[in-house]
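Reopening closed ticket. The problem is back. First fold of the pair:
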Amino acid sequence: MSNPLDTDAGSELFSSYEAELKLVRADLSQKLDQITELSGEPRKSAVRLAERSLEEAQELLDQMRIEKQNIPTRTRTHINPRFRNHESDIDGLKRKLKSLASDRSALFGSRYTDDPSNPHDEQLEQRQQLLSGTERLDRSSQRLKNSQRIANETEGIGRDTLADLQVQRETIQHTRATMLESEGYSILAS
């Protein structure tokens, strides 16, 4: 026996989206179950695949929401509870994925477990050395930037001084030429 909702004009497309959503949801559930068994890079890869499936499920829900508006009101009252169930199922899967994705020890393995109480924690020492080196590098970079700024300012001052000296030279040469010319007139006049 066919679904009575499928006989209405707008509900056929809704039903096809719903069927597709059920497949995507099953696939997403399977991927989430697999994530719990993985760690490290394979886990990160599985999380990314699950995120893509979740995006696809969200897109299908959005399409269903749009299509739901095209369904007659009498039929929509039967579809609304089904739609809300699908939304809550996807929200639950989203929360599960978020918790699996935020499990740092499973994602990164044991390489990022700090034990500050252990003075012989090699990883903690290496990270502290790396942070110290990064801080020294930042300070050196700041000193280089400051030196570059000072060099640029000095170059600008030198350029301005040379321009001023050029103007003064031209003034002196002009004054000398004028003075020599006026001396020549004095000699001629006497």
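Second fold of the pair, where the issue appears:
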Amino acid sequence: MAAAEVKRLGVVGAGQMGLGIALVAAQKAQIPVTLVDSSQASIDKGLKFADKLLEKDVSKDKVTRDEATATRSRLFPTTKMEDLSTADFVIEAVPEIPSLKTSIFAELAKICPSHAILATNTSSISITKIAASTQPANDPTDLSAASRVISTHFMNPVPVQKGVEIISGLQTSQSTVDTALAFVTKMGKIPSQSADSPGFLANRILMPYINEAIVCLETGVGTKEDIDNIMKNGTNVPMGPLQLADFIGIDTCLAIMNVLHEEIGDSKYRPAVLLKKMVDAGWLGKKSGKGFYEY
């Protein structure tokens, strides 16, 4: 089945991920983007960040001033979910709180056009579970909205990272998959498909690697510098696992490890004790000023 054309994108959540997705869609796919957030302060902060990124691109001659102005003019901020009623494709990018995501999808199923693709940027929550929130309580066989639910899991920072995971739930139709693959490609991304399994592909591989590095630190196998240096200089990764954890967010790492441990049940996914302690201490990485390193 041919992919449907996306003429207008909607993004729910104006944080770092949502803003990044909206900006890349406006710049690369060159379509109007409705950016929704319940907080006007979050929208203002996000747009200020967008202006900063565009200004940086102009100063480095990556884009012209006219191109930057055109990109910015395609962003339409709002605090009203109802403004997504004309979107062909909506990407939800709110925090990893299952109840928050399912409530948003139940609302999107009512607001958005009957053809609109309803995508989530979740890094760990079951797509099947999110899709189920769009099904009528009295008729789980009604897949009119659930068949249009999919995950487009962008990597952080969105303007830089090329990879996007495409994850289908049990209810997801092939036409939804085709449209999602075509759209993220139009955004200049390189998609990889994953089954709806805990952690999907990226975090199923990445998070146990980071977790094991934390175990090595807490059990004295090596210092944080030695752990990061051997991985950078020995395996040619741009950033060591502990520094990467700081950039991702220590709390995010713990949340994903908890999902892997609880849903798969294998002890190899048990979160490191130090990981839990750091979250308790509020040492969440770069965003809090302190993690494995100080910022």
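Update: turned out to be a display glitch only; the data is intact. The mean pLDDT is 96. Strands lie at 9-12, 33-36, 75-78, 89-92, 117-120, 149-154, 163-168, 190-194. Please close again.
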